[in-house]
Amino acid sequence: MFVPFLPGIFFFIFFYHWIQASGVLFVSSYLGKPINDVYNIGTGDLACFLSLVGLVFLALGLKFWVDKIPPINFDFIKEKSREINLNKVFLLYIFWFFLYNFLREYAFLFLSTTQIILRVALLKWVIVCIFAFVSILNKKKIWLFALIVAFEFIFGFLSYFSNFKTVIFFVAIILFSFIQKVKIKYLFFSLPVVLLLANLAFTWFAVKGSYRKFLNKGTSTQTVQVSSTEALKKVYTLVNELPPDVKEKAVKLAFERIAYTHFLARTMNYVPKKQPHEKGKLLFNNATYNLIPRVIYPSKPIKNDLAKFDKYTGDNLVKLTKGVSISLGYFTDAYIDFGKFGMFGIIYLYGFAIGAMMYYFFTNIKQNIIVKFAFINVILYDFIYLENDGVTFWGIVFLNLVYYSIVYFLFFRYIIKYIYIKN
After folding, report:
1. Structural contact between residues 24 and 38, judged by C-beta atoms closer than 8 angstroms
2. Is the peptide bond prior to 34 cis by the omega test (within 30 degrees of 0)?
3. Which of 80, 132, 224, 353 is the most core-located residue (most Cβ within 10 A)?
4. How far apart are CA 220 and CA 323, in angstroms?
């Protein structure tokens, strides 16, 4: 489902979900094996099919709210882009770049305010989106936007989790916003870019382990203990000295990591044969977990993804795995509750919730349409991952709704006035 002239995050959510839901098809083709043999389980092909059907119901839930938004004319968007001063947007980006790194560094020192501080930091991407929209619509300073992208990409390698992919995702989201119709020529011209990004992904999967060990100096911590120069030199060395056979193995690893139907397949093999369906209990617990603060509910259990994984797959990862969190994904949560048919009603509800959240901000942000696009792209960004379980999903809904509302209405709506051209 794609509606022209709406924030590109809508299309990107389904595009990335589709990659994760259908990734096993590519692995199967690459290895020359049936899906069930790839997963070594008899429910692999059905899990893939149910995930793809689930995307349709997710889209229908979102579409309910998208249809309520009046059609947006391209000329109107272009006209509104001329109300924004590109130079001021760039200056605001520079300010927020340093603010972003400062806040990310110290956000966890004050746990009671960590979530809202992190969302203030992430407003950097709102500004990047605004700059990109105005630059592309008016064909001005596109070179500067490209420079921002290159800078964010390189700088992304300097963190332990290597956030370089974030800027790539936002570029895709921005470009999706400009697609009026899906034409064959667009697919043809985008093919070299897709191949380049795929090659980058495969290369990254091949060197990621060695690079992270270098960053933390073998301490098994999620920290960076080397200088920026040393980190970038190491990336360059690892990529240049990468053996062809290692990269070939990384192709399979990348597809297996991105594909996210394996856990649904394993759950279907265990539920309801050995563990009964929860009949809505999981949905209720997932939603209320984020609504009731620990101050009110002191005995509130700690979120334990491994224990949940073991319970519904029959595995024993709690004892075998340390320091790793594995999420079943919210499609799997829906299956655990209501089975392979009832799950689609819950998935529709997930799409409905995303759409309702979008509609709330779209109607309550009294700003230029460009600012609305940019803000919604960032607010909904956390929904792109199929691996989010139900607790995480509803946490994104509730926390983003509350904290981004606070951030916007408390001060960001006043700060953003700086970028407008005064009459």
Report:
1. yes
2. no
3. 132
4. 9
Of 104, 110, 106, 107, the residue nearest 125 (C-alpha): 104
pLDDT at 318: 52
Q: How many CB atoms lie within 10 A of CB 128?
A: 26
pLDDT of residue 375: 96
Name every residue whose Cβ is closer than 8 Å to that of residue 356 and which is 6 or more positions away in sequence: 65
pLDDT > 90 fraction of the chain, expressed in percent and rounded = 52
pLDDT band at 298 (very low <50, low <70, confident <90, very high): low
For 30-50, letters b (16+ CB in 10 Å) and e give eeeeebbebbebebbbbbbeb
Segments making up each domain of the chain, as ranges: 9-419
Q: What is the Cα 270 distance to its own chain's centre? A: 29
Looking at residue 129, what is its pLDDT? 96
Chain-centre distance for alpha carbon 307: 24
Distance of alpha carbon 199 from alpha carbon 191, whole angstroms? 12
User: What length does the chain have?
Assistant: 423
Query: pLDDT per residue over 116-170, tens digit each?
Result: 999 999 999 999 999 999 999 999 999 999 999 999 988 887 776 667 889 999 9
